[in-house]
Amino acid sequence: MRSFSRRPEALRALSFATLCVVLAGCTAGPNYQRPSAPPAPAAYKELPPPNPPNGTWKQAQPSDAAMKGKWWEVYNDPELSSLEEKLTVSNQNLKAATDQYFEAREQVRVARASYYPTLSAGPAISRQQTSANLPSATKGLTYNSFAITGQVSWEPDLWGQIRRTVEQARANAQASAADLANVDLSLRSELALDYFELRGLDTQKQLLDTTVASDADYLQLTQRRFKGGVATEVDVAQAQTQYESVKAQDIDVGVARAQYEHAIATLIGVSASSFSLPSMPLTLALPEIPAGVPSELLERRPDISAAERRTQAANAQIGIDITAYYPNVSLNGAGGFESQSAGTWIQGPSALWSLGGSAVELLFDAGRRHALTAQARDAYDAQTANYRQSVLNAFQEVEDNLAALRILNDEATTQNAAVQAAVRSLNISTNRYRGGVTTYLEVLTAQTTQLSNQRTQADITTRQFAASVQLIKALGGGWDTSQLPHM
Taking the model in full, what pTM does it have? Predict the structure, then answer.
């Protein structure tokens, strides 16, 4: 089939296309402005404790370097650092989040492709016979058709639909990148928490091992005194009960330790059956962690950045839906060669071409466009509320963990004094028992009190490390918005 046009008509069509390009600067919908966040106080209500027994905390100063990159290295624990490095390459949840980000990134390229025309071309060869019942000029005609044609189609972005779609895809990709950073931070903080819980249990295990050995000595003492006639059978029974009870507690610690060890194995992507960690009591010092100022959370928390990016994506959707009110303009062109003979296929007289355009306006849709636009505005308002709530949650988490560290610091000081008093009490009761001044019940009470206070002291230390990890997580770890990719 041939298509021809006179030169003036072609010029008019080209002029129309040029006009469309010139007009392609209008962008429908509201331009994005970051929603106002809840007002941030000048400083946190809870300040880090000034001088904890096994470390120091400080309020950040302008000269302080914020945590960057491998935040877990502030603990100066080679084993923890080694585990965190393994998580990077082996954790399947992290790999899934990475692939989700790659998927969102490619969507930006998909959206940008709509800026450009689509072009297709291909040959077609056929042999045809017309109907014998057609007019005599064409009836019963058998002929060959050799054609090679190309088509180009372009929808100029007159109203900004493509620009808004690219803006939305870019914001979603950046939100996905922030999600990836948040997954990374969550997994690493979970690994650190499990690791310190395990080491805290190793401290408990060491304490209970020492207590079992001590109780075994006390049992032998009561047995010798019973044989010498200076102790009663009740003393022996009480010492035996204490020894077996503490031994059972010692064994029971292994259950929780095994579970934390298995959890760590899963986090670093290895089979729990093939993974083990040596026993290492928790004797580290708490690190210095600059808390900074509350307003910095807007830049340092990946979950806040993800919520803010999704707010921009929701804003772009409003513009996309508004463009449905404007005409859909399309430019089309085709060209190529067609002939009955292969010998004259690619020749000047065999050329054909066409150029045209269309503009279609939807006149009635029963309120569908209005509903979609209203829906997009509602989604934007909801996402704005989510963004503001994420900021409030961040403030709370930082304050919670600063408070926990401050209170645990006071508690650790008091508990240390309680342990020292319990040790003195047991020494006094032991000497009194050896001298025959009191029964073993007094020693038993002192033993129980000392063990309880020592285990509480070990638990407080573990909780301090857990709170420090949670504070680092609440502060965003070593991440900030400068790490968001530019699309």
Answer: 0.83
Q: In the chain, what are the domain boundaries?
A: 1-30+119-156+327-360, 38-115+159-325+387-483
Amino acid at 97: A
Secondary structure (DSSP) of 373-433? HHHHHHHHHHHHHHHHHHHHHHHHHHHHHHHHHHHHHHHHHHHHHHHHHHHHHHHHHHHHH
- Residue pair 472/71 in contact by the 8 Å Cβ criterion: yes
How many other C-beta atoms can be found within 10 angstroms of the C-beta atom of residue 261? 18
Q: What CATH number should be reported for the domain whose range is 38-115+159-325+387-483?
A: 1.20.1600.10
Domain covering 1-30+119-156+327-360, topology: Outer membrane efflux proteins (OEP) (2.20.200)
Instruction: State whether residue 328 is helix, strand or coil.
Output: strand
How do the pLDDT tens digits run along the chain, 487 residues long? 333 333 444 344 344 444 444 444 588 889 999 998 888 887 888 765 554 444 433 333 333 345 567 899 999 999 999 999 999 878 888 899 999 999 999 999 999 999 999 999 999 899 888 877 777 777 778 888 889 999 999 999 999 999 999 999 999 999 999 999 999 999 999 999 999 999 999 999 999 999 999 999 999 999 999 998 888 899 999 999 999 999 999 999 999 999 999 999 999 999 999 999 999 999 999 887 877 788 888 889 999 999 999 999 999 999 999 999 999 999 999 999 988 888 888 888 888 889 999 999 999 999 999 999 999 999 999 999 999 999 999 999 999 999 999 999 999 999 999 999 999 999 999 999 998 888 899 999 999 999 999 999 999 999 999 999 999 999 999 888 888 998 7
State the residue for tokens 């230390």.
461
